[in-house]
């Protein structure tokens, strides 16, 4: 009996050991499983918390509230709220306006479009239209490459979309710039678009622009280039709504238009020097006396309107090249281009700098809360002479960078305005004034084909041979390259 018990005890002992070891391993397995589960849950909670915190920190500057519905994504495109006004959040349109379908307007338009498509290749890849949230940065504080990029350095590339309006769809084109109506035979100059090298420039969206400018007021302040530009903008917007003229001065140089559906007003204020000046020149540029320019007095034509305007686009320059007598404190100071008049020759750069300093000082010290843009002077493209001695512009295509140079007078104007703007911009930043630069010099230099030339006149080759006519190589055909300035303006507004 004792032998049997001993044998049974020795036989069962290994079984007990095995059982205990198995229980220990099983417990370890459950503990390990429980730890990993907790770790996974903690990491998940941490990720959601961090994502929510990052977005929550952006809310105060944009005013966008995160949804309490956590079935939606935690990340929110904060800048979408800026574009919900238009109800166009699905896709940003490639071009909101189309050329007229009336074949009598410009019979070559469709032909040119086909030629460009053929030039670019028969099978173009379909580039999907980006959504608004893809096209704009998530937050105004996130400085992306698009916001840093130089809009004003680039190339003109072929575009099959053609003009956004024609002389038939817009009645506001001034006769001297109405190249299509005046019989310009080529239309290739209408099939190019400005393409900045370091960023993407969205085409002007007339509907979005008007919606953003609801209850706002704009003014273009300057000379005939300002008038040229305002007509371009009004014609581009006319595809959505026709502007109604509500004011003009006696000479029809200063005007105001209203878009009733948006309560949006656009003005052009004639002030070629931006300073007080007595000019004795008719609409065709014929002078009967020398200009009297007061360097220390700004033009009340725009200073009286300044505080009532939300957006102002200033430009000047070309009129300073004219013969003029300069005054300070109502006393003759000197002149420009006045030989044999017993006056000190001060030069146009002296007067331009003086006036710009006064203009920018006025702006910087104004406490204005809107947006103020200064447009650089744009080049002319007279070749083989000036406007008065046989100069012409007969090119029909853009040129590449380096093919043309800015002439010496334009170089001087540009040097002055860039120096004075740089100083003013530094002060404006300190004082909280929103001052921006619209630099159109380089992109305009590459478009010698965009001027009216002889087609500032109605069918010039049908005119009497005894009529003396001149090329216009300064202003721009409408439609034409100046329409791209509006693309730049809208980009600057959206930023």
Q: What does this protein structure show overall?
A:
The protein contains 11 helices and 13 strands. The protein is of the alpha/beta class. Strands 4-5-6-3-9-12-13 form a 7-stranded mixed sheet, sandwiched between helices. Helix 8 packs parallel to helix 9. It starts with a helix and ends with a helix.
N- to C-terminal distance: 101 Å
The neighbouring-strand order within the major sheet is 4-5-6-3-9-12-13
Number of helices: 11
Task: Count the beta strands.
Answer: 13
Mind summarizing the main beta sheet?
7 strands, mixed
Summary keywords:
33% helix, four-stranded mixed beta sheet, alpha/beta, single chain, globular
Short summary:
By secondary structure, the protein is an alpha/beta fold.
Topology diagram in text:
Layout lengths: L1 H61 L46 H12 L11 H4 L9 H4 L5 E5 L33 E5 L9 H7 L4 E6 L1 H14 L6 E5 L6 E5 L4 E7 L4 E4 L12 E8 L1 H4 L7 E5 L8 E5 L2 E6 L11 H17 L6 E5 L32 H24 L2 E5 L2 H5 L37 H12 L1
Parallel strand pairs: 3-6, 3-9, 8-10, 9-12, 12-13
Antiparallel strand pairs: 1-2, 4-5, 5-6, 7-8, 10-11
